[in-house]
Amino acid sequence: MSSLSTNILTLAAGEHRELVFVNEPRLDLHVVQEAGSSLKVHALYLSPTEAVAGASEAQITVEQRGEGCRTEIYGLAFLHGEEQVHLTTNVQHLVGGGSSKQLIKFVLDDASQGDFYGQLRIAPDAQKTEAHQTNRNLLLSDKALMRTRPQLEIYADDVKATHGATTGQLDESALFYMQQRCLDEATARRLLIAAFMKDVLETISDEALRERLLTAVEPIRE
Known about the structure:
By secondary structure, this protein is α/β, with parallel strands linked by helices. It has helices at residues 172-180, 185-201, 207-217, and strands spanning 6-11, 16-22, 26-33, 38-46, 55-64, 70-79, 84-93, 99-108, 113-122, 129-139, 145-154, 159-168. The chain is built from three helices and twelve strands.
């Protein structure tokens, strides 16, 4: 796998930035946040075989160096065949009063592979920090493989921090219910998969891009 070229970005005090990356084969983003700045990052992999052969890799590092920063990181990979995506996040709360939210989802079909390594560090001086990390994975094939490694380092005592990681299959009871409502199994499966991914895509502020991506994953739009 080729080395990544790091893109370093500094957000000035009070600045807001939203970044959306779609099917980036090699992404290495390092963001430094000053006081009161807000950042929203989306790393999305939807049918990446159209854009890149082999494995894709993304690394997102955020340092909150000023008080009252807000960070949101959203990741989504919908993989088929032998596609692979390796996603690493590293959020560093270095001072207090900030917040971060990470929501990472993988949907793996066929013999595809996903890998998520989530680092979250709250430094001793980062009191009054609120940080949440969630990784949810859906396996559509018994040949699909998911690796998830959350890592929390909390050195401050006045914080709110949570993390969770789950890996499972489609809800058979929900699938049965939808089939009882006159949907064929294939359509019911596609709707359940789309619903699983929807909350990540709906966080995109750009309405045109959001609608285009939602249309790409939803078999039926109202």
